[in-house]
């Protein structure tokens, strides 16, 4: 990329890389590493390569939640919102109960889809060459994450 005079690297991280979260040390550390690696590349390339770190929250369809061994570990990223988060999980999974939670046109929209995340990544890439969005958090307006 440097040889051709331009390029764009897009790395997918997570809000978990922003702050330590009890119960997710390894995941948090790897996402923090992605953040620092991305910023280092941006600085070292001296503007010849655009680097963007995308930090999504609550993307459905990724199956990440199924790998959580200790559900209480999510308290670190949800804090006082933990109980309502659990209630919304049940509503989200129950047909007829998820009104607003699944509608991206509703302020209660709760979890973004992979397709919506992809649209935001394309938005980042489609900026004029002189504009670089170096860091973007993509979240549903009604998500309950603290970070």
UniProtKB/TrEMBL annotation:
UniProt keyword annotation of tRNA processing present: no
Q: Does the entry feature the keyword NADP, yes or no?
A: yes
**A molecular-function term among this protein's GO annotations:** oxidoreductase activity
Q: Name one Pfam family in it.
A: adh_short
Q: What are the alphabetically sorted keywords of the record?
A: NADP, Oxidoreductase
InterPro entries tied to this protein: NAD(P)-bd_dom_sf (IPR036291), Sc_DH/Rdtase_CS (IPR020904), SDR_fam (IPR002347)
Question: Which PANTHER family does the UniProt entry name for this protein?
Answer: DEHYDROGENASE_REDUCTASE SDR FAMILY PROTEIN 7-LIKE (PTHR43391:SF14), RETINOL DEHYDROGENASE-RELATED (PTHR43391)
The Swiss-Prot or TrEMBL record describes its family as follows: Belongs to the short-chain dehydrogenases/reductases (SDR) family.
UniProt protein name: Unannotated protein
The organism of origin for this protein: freshwater metagenome
